[in-house]
Design a protein that fits this description.
about 450 residues; Heat Shock Protein 90; 2 domains; 15 helices
Length: about 450
Amino acid sequence: MPLAIGMAVGLTLIQAIGAYLRYLPFEAGLAPEARARLRKYILLWMPVSCVLYQAYFLHAGVGVETFKRIQYVGWIPFFGFSLLVIRNEGMRHTFVLGMQTLWFALLHTASGTLILTLLPPHYGAGSDRLPVQTALYIVFFLLLLPMERRIFRNLLPPTLFAGNSLAGWCFAILPLGLCASPLITLIERPLMYTWTDRISRFFLLFWGFSLYQYALYAGKRAADIREERHTNELLTQQLHALESQALLLEARADDVRRVRHDLRHYNRLLASLLDSGDVAAARKLIEEQDKDLLARPISAYCKSPVVNAALTVYVQMAAKEGIRVSCGANLDASGGSRRSDGDLAILLSNVIENAIIASRRQPEGRREIAVSLACDGTQYALAVKNRFDAPVRVGDDGLPAASEHGHGTGMASLRNFSKKYGAEVIFTQADGWVKLLMYWSGAGARASDGPD
């Protein structure tokens, strides 16, 4: 009777230790309410577990077979509580369970080795060994607790299991796979193992943690590659903006050369008329020149030179392709810094270019784009809509997804801008119109700028 009670208490503590180690990787991300709920479930189950284990030992006896059966199935309720409280984390739960099982095997192997090495021979097998090995497991756990906390709290860095992919599941189940074969073979074997068995179990832990370290390296490398890809996208967008500004400057230079050429001829003609005394003809020439200048006004959509340049380039591009464009912008030149205005210009260039590309697929009579940009001093609002009759494929983030490789730079620019300035983005398609709405705070934009 006392042996059954002691073994029931000891095995319950071992299962609670496993639940604690499996909890540590999720501790930082859990709300206080979730932590308290998980703690309550475990503390309520522990006395129930003690009673069940004691009843089983009294019925079947305290022996190697009953000891192993409880070890093999006793963890399941504790693991179920973790799944109940920490939801939607199946991949991480699986990986943590495998790593905790490897650690469990290490502590049991260490305690068994100590018994085999230091204690009298009659402790090597049978019921005399069971309470000693259980107690040694708990002692080893307490002695190694600082190291265990450090290892298990850092077991799930952000670079590990970033997505719910098949590759992620294959790696998550790997630690359990490493443990499965030796644990299955140990079911029907006694507790007295050879040194070869013990050394192989130590190597099992070594290879498990070696694979874990490789996963950390691979995850970090994948994160670095994503960061490089993100940087390349930003550089591509900036290059695109520079090209657009270069086109605008070239067009303005052509306009200046044409005006100078026309003005030279105009001045010569006017001088000739005045020399001949034909004042009426000279006056008529001046009036015609005024009408010509008024017929070709210079576009000025807003007071920000960079944003105005972007709007000018792409409105002219759309007009050349026969696309009707309406553009309204209420943006003060002092409303943002040079960097935030540059980011806004890049965003406008990309989203209007996307609208132009979509309009090319429309019939000639149904090509239209409307752009509206407003700022009340603290809040910005941007609306870009264009006619588009075909259905648009939308990604998981609610934004259009590129259907061809090499496309999608405009949406990447929009996502980067939204992340940087905390913008709210709404995309809709209805009644033959595709609409993109964005809202963000001017204070947030200026805070993101840094020094110019």
